[in-house]
Amino acid sequence: MRRLRERAIETVLFLAAASSVLVTIGIVGILVTESMPFFAHVPLKDFLTDTQWTPLFENARYGILPLLSGTLLSTVIALSVAIPLGTVAAAFLSEYVRPSAREILKPVLELLAAVPTVVYGYFALLFVTPLLQKIIPNLGGFNVLSAGIVIGVMIVPYVSSLSEDAMRSVPNHLREASFAVGASRMQTAFRVVIPAAFSGITSAYILGISRALGETMVVAIAAGMQPNLTINPTEPAATITAFIVQVSLGDLPHGSIGYQSIYVAGLSLLVLTLCFNIVGLWLRKKFQEKE
Amino acid sequence: MDSRQELLANIKRRQMWDFAFALMGLLSLLFALVTLLALIVDLGMTGIPRINAEFFVNFPSRFAEKAGILSAWVGSFLIMVTTAVCAIPLGVAAGVYLEEYSKKNWVSQIIELNIINLAGIPSITYGLMALGLFVYKLKLGQSILTAGLTLGLLVLPIIIVTTREAIRAIPNTIREASYAMGASKWQTIRYHILPYSSGGILTGVIISLSRAIGETAPLITIGALTFIAFLPTPPIDGQFPYVNFTWLMDPFTVMPIQMFNWLSRPQPEFHVNAAATGVVLLVMTLIMNGGAIYLRSRFRKKMKW
Q1: Closest CA to B259 of B38, B43, B41
Q2: pLDDT band at A251 (very low <50, low <70, confident <90, very high)
Q3: Residues in domain ABC transmembrane type-1 (chain A) (predicted)?
Q4: If 0-12 CB within 10 Å is exposed, 13-18 middle and 19+ buried, where does residue B1 land?
Q5: Which of A110, A242, B93, B217 is least crowded, fewest Cβ atoms below 10 Å from its Cβ?
Q6: CATH code, domain with B279
């Protein structure tokens, strides 16, 4: 009787754990099945090469490139803020700061990741953009630059916390060996600790990239929502996520081309995120072998 | 003599670089923290004067000065309850299984890998999944239930990961002592592991709920309305059985969506309303996160095995 009860409990707990796999299957399955009808309507070649994305206009064009350029542009800006800041902050916290100060600084830094994204959108639109307009006078009210910078600040804790964990788990005898041969703190940080922690730091970067690619509210609020094939960060542009928000705000009949187009956009986003994850996994493997 | 001077110069140079790097580290931290401060101050200066009692009991309106967030905070609250009810049992159970039961085989490896991957999936794709699955396939409608389920699945990995961490911190001696007294595996978990890890689990729950309350994109995707001037059916009524669940099927709006809606209007008066909503949201998230940090440090100190 008791054994039966134990078995039953174990099965229930297993089902709970397995449900997380169902979530993934659900996401991929729904995205694929709901976007299939779209490709019956639009040839894959047009989707990948057309330079305009106007699925809701009368003269609809279905080229994903403008959304892709907007997404990548805001991600690149965000990363060029988050990666240097996050890595330097992590090295500083792990190698220079006393543990007692670190215990305070790290959670405070993590608060940056806790602020709701819609609040960051407000900040980008009504604080950062006017500030940038003082430096770049002809900057429009909606631009990718300020959205990208704000996303960058927002993902600093994702980069720094994980990197710092990785750096701190580097065994102390490596540091001591480095100091013993006369290296300075900075040399130790850059030539011993960071290389030894690189696989962990890579995971931190990958998580940061995923966040930046998928970030929605900041770009929807501050970057404008016009699909725009450009690499100029001072112009407005739409990202994949901003497009999904824009269409979802309207009345969306099930099965219409607008409905299908947000699934196609979502699928593209997922594929993009997946690509970066695979690159990250490969990088991590490569650097782990070197150890 | 020359080489001695060279050595000294070399040491001096390296000390300078060391100092420069420390300064850079400090500046990076400061930059991030000053940005956070600027955000809070800017939002607060615009938003706090707008906050009064009426702001909480008024419905949204096309007159900025009369508009309030009643339907939004009620919506946020009900959705958080729904999210908690569906995510906590599932997440804790999954965490317990992975930490206490799972053997090192391919099934558990897939589950572990999958949980790591879920953390990298953009939140808006959860919204797309929910629109396709809950709204259209299961016909749950664009309701509070759909929203709660969506956010519940979204925060599930956070609860699983923090539960596992909390359980992992419990030393094996506790388990062995329990088995030695003749307890079964489940009894050990039920009466020892779960109570001792409850602090860590609670931290995860708070963090996941604070994430859920600020989440906007997936709810817009499932078709949350941006203008709602009525409340859901009250969950308690005068007749037997005194509680009803029809509110689960009601349409909703939440504070972040209300804020987004006001923010996307051109008039600055509505931006003030947006700032005020932002203040409410920010205060709630900061309180929840502060609480989680406090709990975490308290339990870490108290637990001396």
Answers
A1: B43
A2: confident
A3: 68-280
A4: exposed
A5: A110
A6: 1.10.3720.10
CA distance A14 to chain B (A): 6
Domain that holds residue B132: 66-301
Residue B232 lies in a domain: yes
d(CA B257, CA A69): 27
Number of domains in chain B: 2
Of A158-162, B33-37, B264-268, B297-301, the range with the lowest mean pLDDT is B297-301
A242 touches chain B (CB under 8 A): no
- Surface of B (21-40) touching A: CB under 8 A: 21-22, 24-26, 28-29, 31-33, 35-36, 38-39
Closest CA to B167 of B220, B82, B101: B101
Q: Could you give the ipTM of this predicted complex?
A: 0.90
Rounded to two decimals, what is the model's pTM? 0.90
On the 0-12 / 13-18 / 19+ scale of CB atoms within 10 A, A258 is middle
Residue numbers of B between 52 and 111 with CB closer than 8 Å to A: 89-91, 93-94, 96-98, 101-102, 108, 110-111
- Whether B232 has a pLDDT exceeding 80, the answer reads no
One-letter amino acid at A144 equals V
Shared-domain flag, residues B286 and B163: yes
Query: What average pLDDT does the segment A44-67 reach?
Result: 82
Structure confidence at residue B226 (pLDDT): 67
* Shortest CA gap B185–chain A (Å): 8
In A, minimum Cα distance to B94 occurs at A17
